[in-house]
Amino acid sequence: MFTRIFAATALLFTSFSSLASIDVVQRFIEQPKAVGETARMTYLFWDVYDATLYAPQGTYSEQQPFVLALRYLRDLDGKAIAERSIEEMQKQGFNDPELEKKWLQQMIAIFPDVSEDTTLYGVRNAAGYTEFYQGSNKIGEVQDPQFTRWFFNIWLGSKTSEPKLRAEILGLGSK
After folding, report:
1. pTM for this predicted structure
2. Which structural domains are found in the chain, ordered by start?
3. Among 82, 114, 118, 159, which one has the highest count of C-beta atoms within 10 angstroms of its own C-beta?
4. Measured between alpha carbons, how far is 60 from 5 in angstroms, rounded to an integer?
5. CA neighbours within 13 Å on the CB side: how many for 131?
6. Span 64-103, pLDDT tens digits
């Protein structure tokens, strides 16, 4: 009996969280729908965040607006998130020390420290720039299409360090 109640509560919470995300995402894109599944990022044995990609009618294109929602499952320092983002871009082949330094400073200024259940949204807007939101509050932006491509490729690019997570959020099945 307890197991059924727990499962029903977890399902209700998950559904509520998804609806809350859709409500926020509707501010950024028309007719938002999750592209694939929500995927959990785990590092060693720590659950770090759940990632969901939203696009108009659930159809992702790197040339059109989309939203990547990250719901954090643990406390993390904003500066550490920015540093890790640069490391992930480098793993994909990005190598421009001047831009890395510039982008790192921009991300450090934008990314807040997060705690469990903090949701951050990365928005690829119609101009090709990246806007960042904590909940429905805009916390910053980077007006550089090159940044947008490299940043979102951390999760969406073919050279991501997390191919399973990529496949889940893009709805690629077992590819």
Report:
1. 0.85
2. 2-170 (3.50.70.10)
3. 114
4. 36
5. 18
6. 999 999 999 999 999 999 999 999 999 999 999 999 999 9
